[in-house]
């Protein structure tokens, strides 16, 4: 069939409520615009884990991989599960298990008001970050020696493969080429991490030659963090390892109005037929849960990224435009200068989208 | 004798010229204020390396360690030495070789004009970062396997010891206690780096108990980078590993007016008798070299940190105050909104300091 099945995992903290709003938006697309979407809610997260010890069962993993075009994830992390085991099993279970090597995170400001930099506005912040999503320190390699003694040594290894580095660098250049962006910058720390990041430098240098029409350079990640604040306009596409991508996109969120505005896609960029994972960049923010105050816009913008992935890119642009209008009219939550609750802010966007369809 | 010997290494790029200005300021202190300083210039850096292959000779290392109270370093790094071997030998030779485990980097804005955040001024940016300086990914552990083949694997290890983590965390708390700062925040990535950063969390939790009067918390480093832009006033003292300290202090420099304003000290915090290393946070910036445009203020503020270390803390405050006045009167270089060259900006500060002495 041509129908697209979407697995929905609300997760923990504010996850379920922003994901509920995202689901309602998807329902508008299904019911009003007639998009062939099947929504499948999965009961996974801290509650489920505490109830019956289940994190991300193998049969669910297989079913998602076989049947779904996309997964929409809210957020994971709950103070009742200190080590975040369930969160890691589910999140890394999909990122690693489905080999979703490109974590694509747009750093795009939708309103002048949300840009915290003097003399800068929305037009100055429009970057897409390609974060490597399957390697680096996230693989968990390492250990602790003589734990708990004065002689303890603890190591995490930053693992990088030729294959892993090449495919994310290539994904960044391919994206730039496809979308008409003219500049790709890689961030590394090759002046200190001589083994791992010499590989990044070398691969970057090889791959960039295949894209002579695209301006490319590398920066040390420390310099990048400084320059992106001093002048974000110089960056269009960024590519970097897992850890640096994590750091730089949170920093980027500060330029967009906070984590309440930051969307992301986790994709296997070279095989668009594969199931992909969509999640707002924010976490579960337990103190905000259940209070109808969390910003739902990151989740709605994430729906936009998903619709592009599924073949309806105009809808991503529409959602962005409507969210920008909501911000302009202060029809938004307090974190972005409005007075509405989660539900009312999401409803404003949903109704405006529905009217346009 | 009570005289303090100071080794001076200009280094590469803009290093020699800003260091020359720093030396002239030290000479004012020696000649006009009568401080017992002996200045010892060392010919080390790319030129020397290219001339006779010398990076950081053992006998110099020993002499510095035996005879000097402090080292003033300009900057290292030269495009003619691609791998930066000489830079690493000298810089890490001192940081590691002298066991200078605390890289102390104030993130302090000296003028409202230099703070790039809407609605924020100088009073909002006053943080001191304690960066671990002898471990982490900087130890160089790791390697490359099947280099140059499609199967290549490259690893850098993030090495952390109980001793290393404890002493830097303790240094941060001791500093807070000594200077009356009320809040210490540790940044880690324990949700992804479970071995290395579980140690950081555990040690932080132990050490903080010894300082009940100080408010303490930890943040994931990604969250820290976001929050320091959204509201820098919530931070007073930060402590983190080598790599994160590198990244966060460059980001911090963006809040101070750029790298031209950022000073640093590398000290063995628990033994103040030991030689310490003082360097501006900026690099050698080869394109700016020899043009009389580099900002000398980071180097002058670094002299201030050195004078505190040597026992004259009032002079650090004086230098800060005079540099702030220079910024206010636009007696500064273009990067911070002035029109003066390196020499003239430094002379303005030096003459004002001399007049006050
Ligand atoms: C929850 C955490 C492990 C995760 C990460 O570091 O990838 C989060 O910060 C993110 O950016 O998605
Ligand atoms: C030159 C480089 C190796 C160095 C570092 O990463 O420590 C620099 O960025 C610094 O911050 O002093």
Automatic annotation (TrEMBL), chains A, B:
Its EC number is 1.1.1.85. SUPFAM superfamilies: Isocitrate/Isopropylmalate dehydrogenase-like. InterPro entries: ICDH/IPMDH (IPR050501), IsoCit/isopropylmalate_DH_CS (IPR019818), IsoPropMal-DH-like_dom (IPR024084). Its cofactor is Mg(2+); Mn(2+). Pfam families: Iso_dh. Residues 5-349 form the Isopropylmalate dehydrogenase-like domain. The keyword Manganese applies. The keyword Transferase does not apply. Gene3D superfamilies: Isopropylmalate Dehydrogenase. GO terms for molecular function: 3-isopropylmalate dehydrogenase activity; magnesium ion binding; NAD binding. Keywords: Manganese, Metal-binding, NAD, Oxidoreductase. This is 3-isopropylmalate dehydrogenase.
């Amino acid at each position: 069939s041509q129908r697209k099945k979407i697995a929905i995992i609300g997760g923990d903290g504010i996850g379920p409520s922003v994901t509920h709003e995202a689901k309602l938006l998807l329902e508008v697309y299904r019911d009003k615009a007639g998009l062939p979407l099947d929504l499948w809610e999965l009961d996974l997260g801290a509650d489920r884990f505490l109830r019956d010890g289940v994190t991300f069962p193998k049969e669910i993993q297989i079913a998602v991989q076989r049947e779904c075009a996309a997964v929409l994830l809210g957020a994971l992390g709950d103070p009742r599960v200190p080590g975040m085991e369930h969160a890691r099993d589910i999140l890394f279970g999909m990122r690693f298990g489905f080999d979703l090597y490109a974590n694509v995170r747009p750093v795009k400001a939708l309103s002048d008001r949300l840009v915290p930099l003097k003399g800068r506005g929305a037009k100055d912040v429009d970057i897409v970050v390609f974060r490597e999503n399957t390697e680096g320190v996230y693989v968990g390699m390492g250990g602790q020696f003589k734990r708990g003694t004065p002689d303890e040594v603890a190591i995490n290894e930053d693992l990088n493969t030729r294959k892993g580095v090449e495919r994310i660098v290539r994904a960044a250049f391919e994206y730039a080429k496809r979308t008409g962006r003219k500049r790709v910058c890689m961030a590394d720390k090759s002046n200190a991490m001589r083994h791992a990041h010499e590989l990044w430098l070398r691969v970057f240098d090889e791959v960039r030659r295949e894209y002579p029409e695209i301006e490319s350079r590398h920066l040390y990640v420390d310099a990048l963090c400084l320059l992106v604040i001093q002048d974000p306009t110089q960056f269009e596409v960024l590519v970097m390892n897992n850890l640096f991508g994590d750091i730089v996109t949170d920093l980027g969120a500060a330029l967009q109005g906070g984590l309440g505005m930051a969307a992301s896609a986790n994709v296997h960029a070279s095989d668009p037929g594969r199931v992909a994972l969509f999640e707002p960049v924010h976490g579960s923010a337990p103190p905000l849960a259940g209070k109808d105050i969390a910003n739902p816009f990151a989740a709605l913008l994430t729906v936009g990224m998903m619709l592009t992935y599924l073949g309806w890119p105009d809808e991503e642009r529409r959602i962005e435009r409507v969210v920008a209008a909501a911000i302009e009219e202060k029809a938004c939550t307090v974190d972005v200068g409005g007075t509405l609750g989660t539900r009312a802010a999401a409803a404003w966007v949903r109704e405006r989208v529905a009217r346009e369809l």
